[in-house]
Design a protein that fits this description.
- Helix 1 packs across helix 10.
- This protein folds into two domains: 1-110 and 257-351, Isopropylmalate Dehydrogenase (3-Layer(aba) Sandwich); 114-254, Isopropylmalate Dehydrogenase (3-Layer(aba) Sandwich).
- It is α/β, with parallel strands linked by helices.
- It has helices spanning 15-32, 46-52, 60-64, 84-96, 161-177, 194-206, 219-228, 240-254, 294-307, 310-325, 339-349, and strands at residues 2-11, 35-41, 69-74, 101-107, 125-131, 135-144, 152-158, 181-186, 213-218, 235-238, 261-265, 273-277.
- The protein is globular, with a radius of gyration of 20 Å.
């Protein structure tokens, strides 16, 4: 029987509720598909920082390196500076393991009420590929006499040819597996150095994929079209910050941030990839048993797909869709199903 080693980092808040829920579903689907998942848990996060002074150990990446994948919840605590989780954990993992693809699918689920009038489920099915290791989140900058009347701050975006080329190749190759359209969401009409370079390199890579349609769209126009004609999009390639914003808009179109899955992917599999729900630790509802586990469970499906267990991944996706068709909804979608009830319903729908 094939076995996979999974590092589990539930994190903080509702992460400690929805990741165990996801593991229940993963274990059941593994049993149905004749493979095994073995887990090692790590207590890292903001609460761990409050207790120990570190989000993860200095050798944390070395500890995670041998695993086939990382299953991550969310990090954040009201008593911890909210600039620290990304710098001390998320960015360390994404950059250290060259997880340069942030993969965020946007699919409307039949039966789930979305905010867009007259939009059918089949109208919303696209993928946002966000460059995940450089761009606007490069952490290069400084404060200059910030407390003085003339205090100033600067932050530098870094775009490299290698960084742009590798996500562009991934985007065009992925579009070949879908409907064959790549939309480059940019803002090069105003960011005339960094994003003009971004556009130039993406267009150069497109020359190697003449069978894939390509278009450029400014982010303000793309935001409007997410709402007005989401059916237009197939594969979106964009920068770190633009992708961060658009992917939450995409989840809102689906009906709730509690539905959006994501993966931080190292396509070459030289390092483990990390899969996580797109929402935060939601401390306001933590411990109440009402967190929507779907985003975490669906992220688990993408973890399995990355490992090559495509049938099991489809099984989870189908079961999520099946449960919502029956009218079972968690509180964030206007229902009353608890975290446990949603999880049990999805498990029971697995076939």
């Amino acid at each position: 029987m094939k076995s996979y080693q999974i590092a589990v980092v539930p994190g903080d808040g509702i992460g400690k509720e929805i990741i165990p829920a996801g593991i229940r579903v993963l274990n059941r689907v593994a049993e149905l598909n004749n493979f095994k998942l073995e887990y090692t848990h790590f207590p890292w996060g903001a609460e761990h920082y409050r207790e120990t002074g570190e989000f993860m150990p200095v050798n944390g990446l070395e500890q995670l390196r041998p695993f086939d994948a990382i299953y991550f919840g969310a990090i954040g605590h009201p008593g911890v500076d909210d600039t620290l989780p990304a710098i001390r954990f998320t960015f360390r993992v994404r950059k250290g393991f060259q997880q340069y693809i942030n993969y965020r699918p946007v699919r409307m689920i039949p039966g789930v009420p979305g905010p867009l009038r007259n939009t059918r489920p089949e109208d919303v099915d696209f993928v946002i590929l966000r460059e995940n290791t450089e761009g606007e989140f490069s952490e290069v900058g400084n404060l200059v006499n910030p407390d003085s009347p003339y205090g100033s701050a600067f932050q530098i975006s870094i775009f490299t040819r290698q960084g742009i080329e590798r996500i562009a190749h991934y985007a065009f190759q992925h579009a070949r597996e879908r409907r064959g359209l790549v939309t480059n969401v940019t803002k090069s009409n105003t960011l005339i150095h960094s994003l003009l370079f971004w556009d130039k390199v993406v267009e150069e890579v497109h020359e190697a994929y003449p069978d894939v349609k390509y278009e450029k769209m400014y982010v303000d126009n793309a935001s409007a079209n997410f709402v007005l004609r989401p059916q237009h999009f197939d594969v979106i390639i964009t920068t770190n910050m633009i992708g961060d914003i658009l992917s939450d808009l995409g989840a809102a179109i689906m009906g709730s941030l509690g539905l959006g899955p994501s993966g931080n992917i190292n396509p070459e599999k030289k390092y483990p990839s990390m899969f996580e729900p797109i929402h935060g630790s939601a401390p306001d509802i933590a411990g109440k048993g009402i967190a929507n586990p779907v985003s975490a469970i669906w992220s688990g499906a993408y973890l399995l797909k990355h490992l090559g267990e495509n049938q099991a991944a489809r099984c989870i996706e189908d079961s999520i869709f099946r449960v919502f068709k029956t009218g079972i909804f968690p509180p964030d979608l206007g229902g009353s199903a608890t975290t446990t009830q949603m999880t049990t319903a999805i498990m029971n729908a697995l076939t």
